[in-house]
């Protein structure tokens, strides 16, 4: 029991809501450590792909972009997205590609396989409406 004359001081130092220094959210003092370590949107988190430290609230968007970067697999000589690297390392058979594939080369190969489009007409069907 706390003596009545010390009750207010006890409440202030032990039970009064505290403010997170990172995000200014008010909470019970016993929640502060967990909040700062795991839940605070402003806590510093590290990107799993580049190890760049940034606020946790920005981590998902950053990793979405960062995980799309590619690195060359030295076993098969293919460019692999960072987000797919672990799965690739498990399944890579180590058979080297004869040429390193780039996203540009892949797009060009896909474009060459796609059916050709008709060229656009020489005149626009709306041209008659706008001629002086």
Q: Short description, anyone?
A:
The protein is of the alpha+beta class and 132 residues long.
> Can you tell me the residue ranges where pLDDT is under 50 for at least 5 consecutive residues?
none
Q: Hey, roughly how much beta strand do the residues contain?
A: 5-15%
For the terminal residues, how far apart are their CA atoms?
Answer: 95 Å
> What is the string of SSEs from the N terminus onward?
HEEHEEHEEHHH
Structural class: alpha+beta
Instruction: Name the strands of the widest sheet in spatial order.
Output: 1-2
The largest sheet, given as strand count, sense and whether it forms a barrel, is: 2 strands, antiparallel
User: How helix-rich are the residues, as a percent range?
Assistant: 25-40%
Identify the overall geometry. elongated
Oligomeric state as shown:
single chain
**Structural Rg:** 29 Å
The beta-strand count equals 6
| SS field, number of helical segments | 6
Give the overall average pLDDT. Answer: 82
InterPro entries: Innate_Immune_Apopt_Reg, Znf_RING/FYVE/PHD
Biased composition (Basic and acidic residues): 104-113
Organism: Centaurea solstitialis (yellow star-thistle)
GO cellular component, one term: mitochondrion
């Amino acid at each position: 029991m706390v003596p009545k004359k010390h009750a207010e001081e006890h409440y202030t130092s032990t039970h009064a809501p505290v403010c997170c220094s990172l995000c200014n959210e008010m909470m019970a003092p016993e929640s502060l450590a967990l909040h700062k370590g795991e839940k605070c949107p402003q806590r510093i988190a590290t990107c799993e792909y580049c190890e760049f430290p940034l606020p946790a609230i920005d981590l998902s968007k950053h990793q979405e972009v960062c995980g799309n970067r590619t690195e060359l697999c030295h076993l098969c000589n293919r460019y692999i997205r960072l987000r797919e690297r672990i799965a690739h390392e498990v399944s890579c058979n180590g058979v080297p590609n004869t040429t390193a594939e780039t996203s540009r080369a892949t797009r060009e190969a896909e474009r060459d396989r796609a059916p050709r489009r008709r060229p656009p007409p020489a005149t626009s069907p709306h041209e008659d409406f706008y001629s002086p």
